[in-house]
Amino acid sequence: MTSGPQDPQHGGWGPPPGQGPEGQGSPGQGQPPYGQGQQGGWGPPPGQGQQGGWGGPGQGGQPQYGQYGGYPAAPGGWESGPPEEPQPRPSTVRFGLGAFLASTLINLISLVLGFSDLDEVRRQAATDSGLTEEQVDALVNTTIVITLVLIAAFLLVIWFAWQGHNWARIVLFVLGGISVLLGLLGAGVGLSFLGLVQLVLVAAGIVLLAQKQSNEWYRSERRRRALR
Predict the structure, then answer these.
(1) CA-to-CA distance for 177 and 215, rounded, in angstroms?
(2) Which of 119, 82, 85, 98 has the alpha carbon at shortest distance from 209?
(3) Do residues 84 and 223 make contact, with C-beta atoms less than 8 angstroms apart?
(4) Cβ 29 vs Cβ 22: under 8 Å
(5) Which of 10, 58, 78, 156 is the most buried (most CB within 10 A)?
(6) CB 173 within 8 A of CB 209
C-alpha cells in the first residue's frame, strides 16, 4: 500500500502540476511558457519581424513610422540650364542704330547752328509773332531746353537698344516713323539738305532694325536675360 502517486518511470513523487518531468521550475521541451519565444527572452514588439530590433524596418520592406525616402526629383521643366552666351551684334543692328545716332547728331548740329545767333533769332521771332522781347526770350529758352531733353532721351533709348532691349527698338520704330511721316509732309513746303539727310538716315535705321538678323538677335538677348 503506497502513500501517494509515483512516477511511473523512476518511482517516487511526481512533479508538481505545470512542471515538466526534467526538473522543477524549468520549462518543458515541448511547450514554451506563456509570453516567451522559442529561444527565450522577450519577443519582438507586435508588427515587427524577428530579425529587426526596435525602430528597424520590417521584413516586408515597409519603412517604419517617421522614416521617409528622399524627396522626388524635380520635373525637368523646372530645371534651368546655364545662361546663354551673349551673341555678337549683327551688322543690321550696328548699322541701324548707327543711322539713328547719326540722325540725332545731325539734329543737334542743326540746333546749334540755328541758335548760334540768338539776337537775330529773337528779333526775327518778335517780328513774326508780335511778341515782346521778354516773351521771345522765354520762348527761345524753353525751346532750347525741351529740344536738349528730347535729344538726351533719344540717345538714352538708342543706348538701351544697343544693349539688346527690344522695347527700346520698338520706341525707335515709333519715333522714327513719326519723324519720317512729318518729313514727308514737310517736303512740299521746303526741306533743307540736313533735314533730307536726317530723313534718309531714320528710314534706313528702321529698315535695318526690322531685318531678320536683328529680330533673331533681340530674341536671343531676351532669352538670355530671362535665364539670369
Answers:
(1) 18
(2) 98
(3) yes
(4) yes
(5) 58
(6) yes
| Number of continuous H segments (helices) and E segments (strands) in the chain | 6, 0
Q: Kindly report the pTM of this predicted structure.
A: 0.60
**Cell numbers at 12, concatenated:** 517516487
pLDDT digits (tens, 9 = 90+) for 48-94: 444 444 444 444 444 454 444 444 444 444 445 555 677 899 999 99
Q: At what angle do helices 212-226 and 91-114 cross, to 10 degrees?
A: 100
C-alpha cell at 198: 536726317
11-42: b (≥16 Cβ within 10 Å) or e: eeeeeeeeeeeeeeeeeeeeeeeeeeeeeeee
Q: In terms of DSSP H, where are the helices of the chain? A: 91-114, 118-129, 133-162, 166-186, 193-209, 212-226
Phi, psi angle pair for 172, to nearest 5°:
-65, -35
Burial of 206 (0-12, 13-18, 19+ CB in 10 A): buried
A 10 A CB-CB count for 109 gives 12
Burial class from Cβ neighbours inside 10 Å (0-12, 13-18, 19+) for residue 58 reads: middle
Distance CA 96, CA 210 (A): 9
For CA atoms 20, 26, 28, 32, the dihedral sign is positive
- Joined together, the cell numbers standing for residue 138 give 522765354
pLDDT at 150: 92
pLDDT tier, 165 (very low <50, low <70, confident <90, very high otherwise): very high
pLDDT digits (tens, 9 = 90+) for 37-59: 444 444 444 544 444 444 444 44
Neighbours of 138 (CB within 10 A): 12
